[in-house]
Fold each of these.
Amino acid sequence: MAYVRPVSKTCWYLKDRNYTIHMLNELTSVFVGLYALLLLWGIGAVASGPEAYQYFLKCLASPGMLVLLWVTTIVIFYHAIAWFKVTPKAMPIQKGEEFVPGGVIAGAHYVVWILFSLVVLFLAGVF
């Protein structure tokens, strides 16, 4: 009799919490990609002239787009936080014989994120 390898079900990742969280982390990259496409659309609208840019802004102000932008913002924050948690494991830093604690590495990423955000807000004229 020939060996038949069992085929895993499509929801295999729902059986283990760690796998489910990993799949959610991977799913967030779809929202990052969609936001990148939105930015490219905006750049194209600016390059196409004032009428195209006004149409782009009008589309952004629609209720459905506002909901999508808020959901995308929340998901991207989750994406960034999830990756900052993984950073100490993916990028361990050794100082002498000891490794820098993971909290320090992740904390440095949060500090840089906040500083860049403040610079962007300053350049945008928010304060």
Amino acid sequence: MKKIKIALIVLISWFINLVFLKNIFAQCIQTSSTVCLTNPLNATSTIGILNNIIIALQVYIAPPIAAIMVLIGAFQILFAAGDPEKFKTGKKTILYAFIGYAIVLIAGGITSIITDILK
């Protein structure tokens, strides 16, 4: 229970920092020739950066992890050999893989809504 409270406090403080931080811009050095550092994330605010991270998570990271978890659950069911507990474990693994992927998809929608509201 204590770990959940700590994680909740960290997430709330992280969200508050994202909302109230000022825009992030690359810096330029004014010398005889101006040297500018471009933002590698192609975003000018923390919400834009968060949106880019979540989109990358949705497209490149979450689908392979979900597929691997479904395969692991299928192998758990396959190798249960009549043991009902192992069969339930496999079903739960597949269910939790789908729930986790749904959470990732919902997170992308929420960040899109927040980005539209703040623009």
Amino acid sequence: MADLTSVVLANGMMTFYWELIGMGNDGQITPDAMDALRARFDAQSRKAQTYYAVMHEMKGILGKDEAASTWMDAPLEAFDGQTPAQLVAAGREQEVLAHIRGGKAKPAR
């Protein structure tokens, strides 16, 4: 059985969550909040698709998912010490793809 502190914290978090997502007093999510959630989901989905498209391109060179994943997380001199994943997250996936397609990409060490 949960102690009183846990119940109070859980209720407080639920109230915070409802406010965060725009739940009305009637327990229904507001249309504006639903639109905001959809927009956030779409943005996250696009980021994930872009990340995996770049990773797939690198997998074609390295042959394995693990190697491509390691490369995505490795700081590279060509990117001023940033990782390909950081560049992709910042919307700079075209730079990473140009690097890969230009034959400059090498396995991470």
